[in-house]
Each structure stands twice: as C-alpha cells, then as structure tokens.
Design goal:
The chain is α+β, with helices and mostly antiparallel strands. It is 29% helix and 35% strand. Strands 1-3-2-4-5 form a five-stranded antiparallel β-sheet. The chain has a two-stranded antiparallel ribbon with strand order 6-7. Bound molecules: succinic acid. The site of succinic acid (SIN) has 10 residues, from helix 2, strand 3 and strand 5.
C-alpha cells in the first residue's frame, strides 16, 4: 500500500452521512488538537498498544530520513488510553491530510475513562503493509533515531516528550513510551 492514504480513506470510508463522529487520538492527536471539536473526553481502547514503529516522512522526518512516530499494534491483553474528540465529518478532510503518511481510518469501541459507557469511534492506524512502516527496534535504537530526526512539524524528540507529558497529565503509564523517553533523556 502507498504511504499516501488520503484518497484511500475518503473512498473506503465516507463519513458525511453522519452528524458527528468520535475520533480517538493516541499519539500527537492527544496533545495537538488543532481542529474544531464539539466535545473532548479521555477514553481507552482494548486489544491495542502504542508503538514507535511508523516512519514519518511529512511531520517529524523527511522521505530521505524518516522520523519515528506512533502506530498501534494488536495485542490481546493490551489497553491504550488516549483522548477522544467529537467532530463534524468535514473535519476528516483536515485529519486525513494530517494523518496521510500511511494511516487508515478504522472504527473501534472507545471506553470512557471518567464516566461509565462506551461509543464507536474512529482512529488512524498505520499497519505493517504501508510503505512508511519501520517496525520494531530496541528502545535505545528508537531513542537514538528520534534524537537525530526532524521534519516540517519540528523535532521528533518534541513529539515523544509532549506525548509523554500528556500521558503523565492523564495519570496514564505507558511502558514503551516512558522507556524510550528515558533512553532519549540519557543521550
Ligand atoms: C494519533 O495521534 O492518534 C495518530 C498518530 C499521530 O498522529 O501521532
């Protein structure tokens, strides 16, 4: 699959017939909500874990020197906390562009963190078959990769540090993110 997913997302999953859609953010969408939203609520999903396994050609790296950003990896026992935003369907024009580097929209169940209940929502998933996928590496190798990368949205380290700070603010522990943060801070 090409790493530019704008047209694929628009063709396979039109959303314009819906009044509003819940978007689940687990990476930069947690700390950088630069779009209009109707509601914002912390939520989690089950069966997925965050991993710095996706290459970034357009935000935190370049096509010649991709950065490392987050995707989700399926793991039966995992729980991943993030931020959910209720948005109008036209917001996906912007979001599809922002998340175009290998991410496909997927519907899944979101569980609220501070109130009982759940809803269906959309997240952006970069699976192993996209051309920008980088896959696993050790925490220290990922930290070194992040330390040397930058792109049009800024330093790759800023992505990691802002995410780690946002998770701490939510009282959420993410072993993968915090181990790579520690490795980066030691460099
Ligand atoms: C997300 O934040 O939910 C998707 C990955 C990213 O843009 O960092």
């Amino acid at each position: 699959m090409s790493h530019n997913t704008i047209a694929i997302n628009q063709q396979r999953q039109p959303l314009n017939h819906l009044k509003s859609v819940w978007l689940f953010g687990y990476g930069s969408l947690i700390y950088k909500a630069d779009f209009a939203y109707l509601n914002r609520k912390p939520a989690c999903i089950y069966g997925w874990q965050r991993r710095f396994w996706q290459g970034s050609h357009d935000h935190r790296g370049t096509p010649e020197a991709p950065g490392r950003v987050l995707t989700l990896v399926e793991t039966a026992t995992a729980r991943c906390a993030g931020m959910a935003y209720e948005v109008t369907p036209d917001t996906f024009e912007y979001l599809d562009h922002r998340e175009k580097n290998g991410y496909l929209r997927v519907f899944t169940t979101l569980h609220w963190l501070d109130t009982p209940g759940q809803t269906e929502g959309v997240l952006y998933l970069a699976s192993a078959d996209n051309a920008a996928y980088l896959g696993p590496e050790s925490d220290t190798a990922i930290a070194a990769h992040i330390a040397r990368s930058k792109g049009p949205s800024g330093e790759n380290s800023e992505y990691l540090l802002k995410l780690a700070a946002a998770l701490r603010e939510m009282n959420e522990h993410d072993e993968h993110v915090f181990a790579i943060e520690q490795a980066l801070l030691k460099l």
